[in-house]
Amino acid sequence: MKLLKNIKYIIALSALMMLLNACDNYIEEDVYSKVTSENFITETTADQLIVGIYVQVRAVYRNYDYKFLGTDIFTSKNDVSSISSGNDYVGFEAPNTSGVWSTNYDVIAKANTAINRYENQINWSAGKLADKAYGIAQAKGLRALAYFNLVQQFGGVVLELEEPVSIRSDYTRSTEEQIYTQIIKDLESAIPDLQAAPPAGRFSQRAAQHVLAEVYLTKAYKSFGSSADFTTAANLAEQAIGTYDIRSQSFAKVFAYNNQVNAEVLFAAQWGTASVDKNNNKHAAFMYQVFNLPGVSRANPYGQVGFNAMPTPYFYSLFDANDTRDDATVHRAILADEAGVLGVDNIVVGDTVVYFPKVAIGASELAERLNKYWVYQPDQYLWGRPAELSVDVNYKYALNPELTNFPIFKKFDDENFNADSEGARDTFIFRVAETHLIAAEAFLGASNSAKALFHINRVRERATGVANHYTTVTLDNILDERALELAGEDNRWAVLKRTGKLEERINLYNPHVVDHGAFDATKHLLRPIPTQELTLSPNTMTQNPKY
User: Fold this and answer.
1) How many folded domains does the chain comprise?
2) Cα gap 99→217, rounded to integer Å
3) CB atoms within 10 A of CB 360
């Protein structure tokens, strides 16, 4: 049963979350053998049920479906005229299964199991009642997060709050409003019993406040929401921010490999260097196959392609000259890590192989540079070869085997990985910078422009050093700032949907959609229910409109 997997009792658990170079404090599973559910699950070992939920959360944030493609800042790496249903919405129909559906329901199933065992199976001593409350709070918080991930994509989904103990064929969908009600109930119940500053990797009070702020913000735009939801969201966001000043560390430092556990990160999916833990793939997103270039090996420091998405030209155009996030977000030069030859040029380790100027360079400088490495101007990032220069140069575009060249992402670079997987870098799920932008959007919705300006300017100031860049604020300002700050981190599709800007912005900025997009707001604002779920509950499950 794919909808809610029957969770087996924890019998043998592998060691999890070994230390990174960053000296992360990991949530660790203990190893047990020859035990049964009756003698394993005690007040002493109960936390392993909670750890199991965190392990499943990693799978949710390792899956990039429905988050990036088909938005204003990410598109397909293929020819602009090519069809990619997830990006241009041409022929977008229900799949048999969906990783978004299954991974989030796996979190829900594990959370339901933990809550049931904590409440009904384990005998808690008086001195351990706080541990009981803390475990249930974590399970409810993570269950709420999973349901929020689902409801944003699918609308009303199956609301299941009991431990799965049998295969069923009668699942039914609750309404979208009912799902939001349960999410809010879970988070409000969890917050008092969550820790303000738990060990790294645990879901904290501030992380829960961040999620609840976004839940209320999203609800505010719904027919069952109200303007008061904007105010509630704004207040929750400010509680989540607390006293932390994002200017205390630069954007580049936030993403430094040796600084993965830092004060800006409210919640992260943690990975480690042990083989059982080393399976992140974030470094392989938003890049092209650079090992095809001369002087770049398969074991290069960038990785190999693991996701067929690239930033749009619009995304790159957003970086102002004084925005330090540009250098920390993307590689504007691909460097050789082995010897190579192109024509008369002998490439040595450390040489530039491809260069992507932030602004277009003139003809004479371009010709000079093309004798030393390829140069792709800001309007040449999409599929295809630029026209050759009228003068002879060593690095002719026809000699580059890669047809799509663009500044690949840098902020997710790993130092311990294998090709397109087995990475050890943590994935940041929520950062305080995003909380500021949630606050800005919420205060804007509540007609408090002064507070909205404060929060968006605080993010901008960290990046540029300019204290009051914005003097007025609009949704488009916030969306642009989110793109610069959170590209590849937040669920861009869900944010555009929430603000009512998805159709407008893809028609302006996604090149494949501009060329031949088939977006239909009466259909594509909801994702299709996987057909397998309809097959498993044929008399009760329903599909979203037009799929």
Assistant:
1) 1
2) 26
3) 11
